[in-house]
Amino acid sequence: MKLILLGAPGAGKGTQAEVICDALKIPAISTGNIIRDALAKGTEMGLKAKSYIDAGKLVPDEVVIGIIKDRLAKDDCANGFILDGFPRTIPQAEALDAMGIEIDRVVDIEVPDEKIAARMSGRRVCKACGASYHLEYKAPKQEGVCDACGAELIQRKDDHPDTVLERLEIYHERTEPLKDYYSAKGILRVVEGQEEVADTSALTLKALED
Ligand code: ADP
Ligand code: ZN
In the prediction, which pLDDT does 99 show? Predict the structure, then answer.
């Protein structure tokens, strides 16, 4: 299964990607995580991406397309993969097509804008390992501490309320046209994001069946 998860920032793509990764035993690939990792390591790509990511703007297409090309060439992608946060623009989708990759399904997780800001304010990430949490939907066992590695949980700079509005605007303008792009190919399914993570997961897994 070659799957793309679409949706606004904060719609829960990352959480659903983890669930499907466990269920189908295929890797979940998040361009956001790859970029933040590079940033933390201070690589050249990370430095290039920093100003964009901090401002909530999209990293240039050629940079993310390069990241995805390298990642999809790895052995663990042979039986399929889940793309979380890529493509985010039409040129990125066209680049996937140009690589000869045939996507089986695109699941769009819909959450109304009014709910996004509230959801994003509850997001926390681990300073050390990048694991993500949510105060309401996916709370760590101990407040402020990563379950996986014990390091401190922080709020991402780009999850602050003013940046969130910028990201939402960019989502509607640059990413949402992908719904039509994949709908025209007959592979788009729409899932309404639910209050409970497990309820959204059930709908998402069902959307992979037909
Ligand atoms: P979220 O999970 O909130 O949607 P991500 O972690 O996927 O956010 O992405 C965070 C940031 O990383 C984006 O705001 C953008 O700056 C950059 N980024 C990630 N994926 C892409 C992409 N496909 N194209 C351009 N920029 C990207
Ligand atoms: Zn951690």
Answer: 96
What CATH number does the domain containing 9 carry? 3.40.50.300
Catalytic-residue membership of 13: yes
Domain boundaries, position 107: 2-26+79-205
Q: 30 - beta bridge partners?
A: 84
Q: Return the pLDDT at 153.
A: 97
pLDDT the model gives residue 162: 84
State yes or no: is 36 an active-site residue.
no
Residue type, 5: L
Name residues contacting ligand 1 (CB within 6 A): 9-10, 13-14, 30-32, 35, 52-53, 56-59, 64, 85-86, 88, 92, 158, 167
Count Cα neighbours of 187 within 13 Å in the Cβ-side half-sphere.
15
Distance of alpha carbon 144 from alpha carbon 153, whole angstroms: 5
- Give me the catalytic one of 2, 36, 105, 167: 167
User: Considering the entire predicted model, what is its pTM?
Assistant: 0.92
The end-to-end CA distance of the chain, in Å, is 13
| Number of domains the chain contains | 1
Q: 28-52 in b/e burial notation, b at 16+ Cβ within 10 A? A: bbbbbbbbbebbeeeeebbeebbee
pLDDT along the chain (210 residues), means of 10: 96 93 95 91 91 92 95 95 98 97 97 90 91 92 97 92 91 98 98 93 93
